[in-house]
Model the fold of this input.
Amino acid sequence: MDHAAFDDRVRRSLPSRLAGGLFFGGSFDPPHLGHARLPDAVFERLGYESEDLVYAPAARSPHKSGAPTPPHHRVAMLRLVLPRGRNSWIWTEELDRAVSEPGEPSYWAKTWAKVIDSFTGDRPRFLIGADQAVSMHRWFSYETIWRDAVVMLRDDQDDAGRLIGTMEQTEAWSADELEQWRSMIVRVPMIDASSTRVREALRAPATRENPIAGLDDRVHSYILEHGLYTG
Done:
């Protein structure tokens, strides 16, 4: 399916020149309110104003088992919740790459190399959660990308020191690297949203059609219309 057929908020390629931006990768299966709202909090904390917000859905995460929902559905759902107050769009690089590399997981390091090659201004950053920071040392070619991460730590979670302590226990990072990680942490509001919990609610006949915490009504309607997450 031609993902770009939706409109100019879904793009196959990066613009030839980008001055700055935040990238958000993930399965978005389905996208929830945290995916839509947390980047805005990061923009505010970092003082970003005109930078782009780019979502990059994965074809198949190397960190998750099982096949995700078909790409065209995830793109369509994600498009419904794109923040309207800024220049946000979807980049289908990993979905399109899966066509030429069938069976290959969506390695973020490959995606990020393309991003770095395209930027001419301030170096871009990408968003991850605290759990992804803890497991970063297991990512493919993590040593080439980790310094560009922004770690979203929810206000309801323990302080940054506890996160750094957990990362220290992996023995993957030097003391200087852990201090750099500390500087990459941004506190964000707690939003009661989880793709796993949303899928569980959708799969249960008793809750499938009821309002689901963290799920945008428009996405919920799309899911019901297309019969997704039934099994």
Notes: Confidence is low (pLDDT under 50) at residues 1-5.
